[in-house]
Amino acid sequence: MDIALGPFLVWIGIGIIEKHNGVKLLNETNTPSLLRWADSFFSHAVVKTFPGAEKLIEFAMKLIPVSRSRPGLRLLLGISD
Question: Over 80: is that where the pLDDT of 38 sits?
């Protein structure tokens, strides 16, 4: 599960979508088990080597012009007009 879903947490768990769009997807009320798993996942030593949220936001900003013609990518990145 960590290998399959962990990379998605980098986008949603550490707040890429939250910081950019103000949408909090993981919280104690609606997703308590997923939030605990995310905390456990991010506490692993290997995962701590992942780029920080700021670097990923910078990368995502480069994708926005490309995403204009690709609705699926816009949805994945949480971009709305």
Answer: yes
